[in-house]
Structure formats: C-alpha cells, structure tokens
Design goal:
By secondary structure, the chain is α/β, with parallel strands linked by helices. It has one domain: Thiamin diphosphate (ThDP)-binding fold, Pyr/PP domains (Rossmann fold), CATH 3.40.50. It has eleven helices and seven strands. Helix 8 links the parallel strand 6 and strand 7. Helix 1 runs antiparallel to helix 10. The chain is globular. The N and C termini lie far apart (about 60 Å).
C-alpha cells in the first residue's frame, strides 16, 4: 500500500482535492459542535480520517454521467458532486426546505438532479440498488457507472455478496468501495472476517479487486479512475478496499473507548488532510499559509450556511405524516 511517488493530477486538480477534503473536515467539525448544542437532528456520523476516500473516489467519476450512492460518512462525495452547504445544513438541522422535509436529519436524502442517491439504513441493501441502477441503464444501452460504499462490518452481510455476484455475472459497471475502518462499531477486524484483505474476496466473485491506502487521496483517485475506465470498457465491476481508521465513534453518542489509544495515535499521524497539505507545500502547488487561508474561507462559508439554515422555520408538523401510510380506496 505504498503512496504514489509522483502527482497524477494537475495543480488545479490537486487544489480541488484539498478543498473538498477541507470542506468535509470542517463540515464534520461543525456538526460535532451543533450536535453538542442540541441543534443537529438524528445521528452525527463523523468521517474524520475518511476524507481521502470519499473525495478521491467521487472525484474519479463523471458527475454528469455516473451516479453516486454515498454512505453517511461520505459527505466529501456530496461536495464533489456539487451539493451546496446550504442544502446540507437544511437537511442536518431539519429546517424548512430540506430534502427530507425535516423528517430525517442525516444520510438518507437524495438529490437526483445532482445524481446523488441517499443511503439505505440497512447499509448492505444499498449495493443491490446501485447494481440495479447500472443494470437498468445497461438494458437501455447506456453505460452508467454506479459507485457505492460499505464499511468493514457492513461488508459481511448477505446483500453485499449477492449484489457483487450479480454484478460480476452481468459485468455491470459497479464500483464498491469498502471503507475498512478497523472497527465495525466496537467489533475489531479480527472478529469480523478471516481473510487477510477484504479485496481477496473479489476473485471468488470473478471481479477485479484491490486493497489500497485510504489516507492517500491521489492514490484513491487513481485507483478509482482505473476502475471507472474498466467499467466503461465493459470489464465489469471492481471491489476496492481502502484501509483507513474511523477517528471518532460510530456516531457521536459513542465515546469509542473500546479503541486502544495507541492505535488512534498511530493513525492520527496518517491524517489524510494534514498529509496532503504537507505534500502540496512540498510540491510548491500550495503553501501551508495558502492552505490555512483556504480553510478559513471554508469555515466562514460554513458558519454563514449554518446561520442561514437556523433562520429558517421548522417544517409544518403535517410533513411528518407524508409518505408514511398509503391510502387505498375500496373498489378503485
């Protein structure tokens, strides 16, 4: 899992990748504060430590042709695909105008106009949906790459295996990113699976598989770009395992005291955001001072989006009853 030795992106693309990662990091930081203030609704699922995965993978797609099925820890992918801070804040603060009409705070919203489709709570069930999207387009003669995600724990459920087998049989343009966070809630890897790498399973499905360093955003981008090219060439799906570390608990209600402190300290040295700032400074693409200025501007934009969202009224109470029951008329 060596890091790339040379840049594979233009300076402009490198600055893009950093900006999206900083947006993801500052969004998480803001949500942690809002949760503690009682202003955020639903669970707050941090992606601290996973920014390179969500940003690098989504950046490899064509946002006008391909589709993104992000999990709750893939806010970076939302930003790459053009989602606005205002819309995300309305969603997470459950205010009027949110895509979920205030009925759900985090994760399940979709934005078909941006080709973003929200996750299913039973996360393994999202992979068959993503495969089905690509299958439907294939039947229409269109190649649409569907990219979706699952954690190391979710990768053990039956729907994931069924979907990958189905995608392999039909050579669907599906890319599954497994975010190996070392822990599925409080369960460590060695109690989840017996294979050395989760990508080892790919050969059993008859698909391409690879394990990479999930803290290296350019490596994630390059690997996913290759998978996209394979998919468009008719070579079928790809399984990509990214080795990362979830630096917070499963959600903010979880103090993650079960994770050894020395393990967290070891992964903290691999912080994907700090590593990339250092790398771009070394390459003379962006100085650390300019990166700090970029971060400050993102933070100010985040604060403004929060203020605008908090100024919005709560949705009407009736919204909570919509799409809950299906009305039927006898004899209709």
């Amino acid at each position: 899992m060596a890091r790339l030795k040379a840049p594979i992106c233009t300076p402009e693309q490198q600055r893009d990748l950093l900006r999206y990662m900083l947006m993801a990091r500052e969004f998480d930081t803001a949500m942690l504060r809002l949760y503690r203030q009682g202003k955020a609704f639903g669970g707050v699922y941090s992606q601290l430590g996973n920014e390179a995965v969500s940003v690098g993978s989504a950046y490899a797609l064509d946002r006008h042709k391909d589709v993104l099925f992000p999990m709750h820890r893939n806010i970076g992918g939302h930003f790459v695909f053009g989602q606005s801070l205002d819309q995300l804040m309305l969603n997470h603060l459950a205010r009027n105008g949110s895509q979920m009409r205030g009925t759900d705070g985090t994760g399940h919203y979709a934005d078909p106009a941006l080709r973003i489709y929200g996750n299913v709570s039973h996360l393994g069930a999202m992979i068959p949906v993503a495969a089905g999207f690509s299958m439907a387009d294939k039947l229409r003669g269109v190649t649409t790459v569907s990219m979706t995600y699952i954690g190391d724990g979710g990768a053990q459920v039956g729907e994931v295996h069924e979907a990958l087998n189905f995608a392999s049989v039909h050579k669907l343009p599906l890319i599954l990113i497994i975010e190996n966070n070392q822990y599925a809630y409080s369960t460590p890897n060695h109690m989840e699976f017996a294979c050395q790498n989760l990508s080892d399973r790919a050969i059993g499905y008859g698909m391409h598989g690879v394990t990479i360093d999930g803290t290296d955003v350019e490596l994630v981008y390059a690997t996913c770009r290759e998978a996209v090219e394979r998919a468009h060439s008719g070579l079928g799906p790809t399984l990509i395992e990214t080795k990362t570390m979830r630096m917070r608990g499963h959600a903010e209600h979880d103090d993650f005291s079960y994770v050894p402190k020395d393990l967290l300290e070891e992964w903290a040295k691999k912080d994907p955001v700090e590593q990339y700032i250092t790398l771009l400074d070394k390459r003379n693409v962006m100085s650390r001072k300019d990166a700090t200025a970029m971060r400050e501007q993102i933070l100010q934009d985040m604060i403004s989006a929060i203020d605008r969202a908090l100024e919005q009224p709560w949705p009407d109470a009736e919204e909570g009853m919509k799409n809950v029951f299906m009305s039927t008329t006898v004899g209709a």
